[in-house]
Amino acid sequence: MRGWLLLLVAIVLELSGTVALKYSDGFSRLLPSILMFVLYLLSFSALNLAVKTIDVSIAYAVWSGLGTLLISIVGFMWFQEHVTPFKVLSIAIIIIGVICLNLANSAASKPVEAGADSQEQQVLMK
């Protein structure tokens, strides 16, 4: 549970860092530029702690997928970026990919049932 909370914190920090990136205006504004570096550093630190208890493939997929979704929403709503059907479809594909990775991870981590087939099942799972 702690890992997932740290992952959520990492996502919020990454989102905030990306907003600061937009406001830095190509590093021409000092405060947003400094904030961007600090927020990204904190985000990667939280992500680093999260992968102590969450598989790195899952943590990174969730971090990047939700980060992409959230910054897209911020871009559409806050920065008045254009919404196109292709952008919406692309974001949906990312979300579906994150869900599928989580489902695959859940299926792979289920214990093998004891019985006559258990050795064969274990060999097949490797």
Reconstruct the topology from this structure.
Layout: H1 2-24, H2 30-50, H3 56-77, H4 85-108, H5 118-125
Helix pairs in contact: 1-2, 1-3, 3-4
InterPro entries: EmrE-like (IPR037185), Small_drug/metabolite_transptr (IPR000390), Small_multidrug_res (IPR045324)
Subcellular location: Cell membrane
Organism: Paenibacillus sambharensis
Describe the structure.
The protein is mainly α and 126 residues long. It has one domain (2-111). Helix content is 78%, strand content 0%. The chain has 5 helices and no strands. It has helices spanning 2-24, 30-50, 56-77, 85-108, 118-125. Helix 1 packs antiparallel against helix 2, helix 1 crosses helix 3 and helix 3 packs antiparallel against helix 4 (85-108). The radius of gyration is 19 Å and the shape is flat.
Rounded to an integer, what's the Rg over CA atoms? 19 Å
Strand % is: under 5%
Q: Round the mean pLDDT to the nearest integer and report it.
A: 88
Low-confidence stretches: none
Largest sheet: none
Number of H- or I-type helical stretches? 5
The number of strands is 0
Given the C-alpha coordinates, what overall shape results? flat
- Termini separation comes to 27 Å
Short note summarizing the structure:
This is QacE family quaternary ammonium compound efflux SMR transporter. 78% of the residues lie in helices and 0% in strands.
